[in-house]
Amino acid sequence: MVTIGPVLFIIGLLMSLLAIAMGLPAIADLATGNSDWQVFAGSAAVALFVGVSLMLATRASSRSNLNLRQAFLLTTMSWVSVAAVGALPFVFSGLNLSVADAFFESMSGITTTGSTVIVGLNEAPPGILLWRALLQWLGGVGIIVMAMAMLPMLSVGGMQLFRTEAFDTPDKVLPRAAQLAGGIFAIYLVMTALCALALWISGFNGFDAITHSMTTIATGGYSTKDGSIGHFNNPVAEWIIIAGMIIGSLPFVYYLRVVRGDLSPIIHDSQVKWFLVIVFVSVSGITFWIWDDSNVGGVDTLRNSAFNVISILTGTGYVTQDFGLWGGFPITLLLCLMFIGGCAGSTTCGIKIFRFQILAATAQAQLSRLLVPHGVFIPYYNRKVIPEPVSNAVMGFFFLYIVCFAALAAGLSALGLDFITAISGAATAISNVGPGLGSTIGPTGNFAGLPDAAKWILSFGMLLGRLELFTVLVMFSPAFWNR
After folding, report:
1. Helices (H), 87-159
2. Nearest CA among 302, 311, 299, 298 for reference residue 283
3. Residues 436/113, Cβ–Cβ less than 8 Å
4. Cα–chain-centroid distance for residue 240?
5. What single DSSP character describes residue 66?
6. Angstrom distance (rounded) from CA 124 to CA 118
7. What crossing angle do the helices spanning 5-21 and 37-57 adopt, rounded to 10°?
8. What DSSP letter does each residue of 335-377 carry, written as one string?
9. Residue environment code for 369-404, b if the CB has 16+ CB neighbours within 10 A, otherwise e
10. Which of these, 364, 375, 239, 363, lies nearest to 302 by C-alpha position?
């Protein structure tokens, strides 16, 4: 069987850190005279007790090197345990959330999905609003480190393409990941602070500026208002958030190189170019569609189109308008954009740009071989040959992604949800986008009215999408648990 001592030690450490993070919303509630500070204090005490107990019980194995199966187990169990601990304040707060609701809200936060079951955010306690933002902010930096350290080592869905010598063996992962996390966290913190300052200057109050900057850079989409960003009716803030969402969608490791004076990677990386081209084409197409179909001015149309298109493409999930009223073409395009996502090594999810590039290069080489059977055609990515295992992994990822999406949609339909709600709910969960389509879970609705079984299915879908499918599904293989 898999030895889980080292895994439990790290999970205990994560729980302890999360307990410390609960001190911030407790302080926010205490400062405003809200009694929910006791909820956060009690939840922190429970999380700290469990976390420290796990660390003490497994301290003897804490120095052991992680093998491949332990790395898989750690990746999945860490996100599940953090979501479970993060749900405690929601369960015991005055929001009257069920266990399914609380876990859904926490999983949506830590996976930076942004779907919510909370109604009445305008009157919610500041501690709860800050905790939601903190979950997304921590989940955003966590997924960056995981994408750079763990997934390449695990060869998940073609991520081995980004493997470096520092991560060639499992025993090098944790020390090198700690160094990488330190640099990325510093960049992440500075970007969040700059975004908060810009939003404050644009007219947001200090609390809203901080919480929205955290969920913008994390491309999470949790807002402090039921009407999301549209509630503020602030065009300058919308442009600031547009820039923040794009920044969060690019590889953060390139920002480290930019700080060191090396601009070439972010300028010449083909996935960055593809991402920006998709943004430009999608925004232009929907802008012209809306402009031709309404009397709204050109600048306002461009802003509304750019904001909502980039929000859906990056999986942020903020909204300023009910894009369900824009017509058939925009709705169809937005549904397709849900699956794309941003660049590898960013806070976004979805299929990722680089996988579409690899699939396109592989398909082009295959078509060329059909036309010239005796020719030699080699697919390239970033001017480098794509190894056959990478192509196979990407094609396997695409196939499994569609199968999981179909299974989620079928499961939701079996619970009585209508076609649009089931399809868009499955898409927004596995792609970690946030809002779906239709009157129930669309941009003006939320997920509170869904049955508890649907919320558990969607929570599993969020975990699947955030951890790149294989990392979770390998747990269900009997061979994984045998020597």
Report:
1. 88-92, 99-110, 126-154
2. 302
3. no
4. 20
5. P
6. 9
7. 160
8. HHHTTT---TTSS--SS-HHHHHHHHHHHHHHHHHHHSTT---
9. eeeeeeeeeebebeeeebeeebbebbbebbebbeeb
10. 239
Buried b / exposed e along 261-278 (16+ C-beta atoms within 10 A): eeeebbeebebbebbeeb
What token pair was written down for 426? 């499955």
**Per-residue exposure over 103-121, b if at least 16 CB sit within 10 Å of its own CB, e if not:** bbbbbbbbbbbbbbbbeeb
CA torsion 423→424→427→430, rounded to 10°? -100
379, 362 in Cβ contact below 8 A?
Answer: yes
How far is it, in rounded angstroms, from Cα 472 to Cα 367?
Answer: 34
On whether the pTM is more than 0.85, the answer is yes
State how beta strands 384-385 and 380-381 pair: antiparallel
Phi, psi dihedrals of residue 344, rounded to the nearest 5°: -65, 140
d(CA 100, CA 103): 5
Tokens for 38, please give them: 């006791």
Phi-psi region of 345 (alpha: psi -120 to 50; beta: other; left: phi over 0): left
User: Is residue 5 within 8 Å of residue 58, measured between CB atoms?
Assistant: yes
| Residue 383 pLDDT level (bands cut at 50, 70, 90) | confident
What is the rounded CA–CA span in Å between residue 430 and residue 472?
Answer: 12
**Is residue 17 packed enough to be buried (19+ CB in 10 Å), middle (13-18) or exposed (0-12)?**
middle
pLDDT, one tens digit per residue, over 214-268 is 999 999 999 999 989 999 999 999 999 999 999 999 988 888 888 888 888 888 8
Token readout for 475 is 């747990």
Helical ranges in 249-297 per DSSP H: 252-259, 264-268, 270-293
Say how far apart CA 101 and CA 104 lie, in whole Å: 5
Residue 148 and residue 90: Cα distance in Å, rounded?
A: 31
